[in-house]
Knr4/Smi1-like domain-containing protein (Micromonospora coerulea), 186 residues
Amino acid sequence: MNNEYAHPDDLAELRTAFSVDDAGESALGWAGVYAFEAEHGIVLPEPYRTFVAEITDGSFSGPPDYGLVGVAEMPDDWGDDRPVRNLSAPFPLTEGWLWEDDPRPYEEIERLLDPVFNDGSVVLGTDGCGMYWHLIVTGRHRGHIWNISGEGAVPFGAEFGHTTASPGFAGWVRHWAAGKPWFDAF
């Protein structure tokens, strides 16, 4: 996984996977990407960066189940009462966390959850029922995809043991385009 360079093969696969969309009309263009990055103090990881600039900024065809939201958007079910998101703050996790089984007091867990949902990631979309896919844009897991839900958070990619997929945005899309279940390593 290379966060700094968009491999032409990955971009070709992404174009194919999203070919039923708007033929690039919704893409932000490079000026739009640079403006988004400057506003949030980040640089988007590749190949997502080029994808948003040149291919599409959101998709109804998926992934995930309810479509890919634009880089500056949030899924419809995200809610209006959440804390302000801080994309430039490092994403806090480096391994999965099932907080519904965590023995610590609820108040302590609740204090730790806001950064998991709101720091260092772009929300890609939802599979419903409060399950959100995040692309990590800052921190040690920059470029990785995480599934974050009301019960816990897990990283996506074969190296983490939940799926047979390659890590990162291209691997996530490739896995979806192949029609595989998200967590197919069980």
In short: The CA atoms of residues 6 and 47 lie 5 Å apart. The chain has one domain: 8-74+82-177.
